[in-house]
Amino acid sequence: MSQLNESEIRRIAELAVRQLQGQATPANVEKVVREAISRMAPKGEASSAVNPERMKNVPFSAPAKGARIILTAFGTNSIGILAGLTAELAALKCDIVDLSQKIMQDFFTIMILVDSSNSDVPYEEIRERMARVGETFNLKVIVQHEDIFKTMHRV
């Protein structure tokens, strides 16, 4: 794996801040970013230190194409939710790697692990399109990169 550039690290930090919300202290964000970077480094290689001063004013870049993503959706159950979500993923040329859904009375939840390596669509557009599909079913849809998702749930 090639070394992450500053804009990729900055993007990871931006996602960490969004997901940490009220707990996004500098120390928490740094911890999450360092964990994500170390998880992405090849076994046995240490990740290089990042100089925060060099990261200032670096524009955010889109995540690497083909990264695996986690889609989580929840809301009131209705007919066609699974078909709507999976049809849009197919239209985006995204492959479903794993899926777990649960319906508890009228409440619907689903988590889908998606491989987007065959998609020609950028991550941000995948996120927006899946959110729009969710809106048609009155669902809250959250799309996250797998590494950020794993790191966020360890904090």
The arrangement of helices and strands along the chain is: HHHEHEEHEH
Main beta sheet: 4 strands, antiparallel
What would the average pLDDT be, to the nearest integer? Answer: 77
By helix and strand content, what is the structural category? alpha+beta
Structural commentary:
With 155 residues, the protein is an alpha+beta fold. It has two domains: 6-55, no CATH class; 68-152, ACT domain (Alpha-Beta Plaits, 2-Layer Sandwich), CATH 3.30.70.260. 43% of the residues lie in helices and 23% in strands. The protein has six helices and four strands, in the order H-H-H-E-H-E-E-H-E-H. A four-stranded antiparallel β-sheet has the order 2-3-1-4. The two termini are 25 Å apart. The relative contact order is 0.20. Pfam families: ACT_6. This is ACT domain-containing protein.
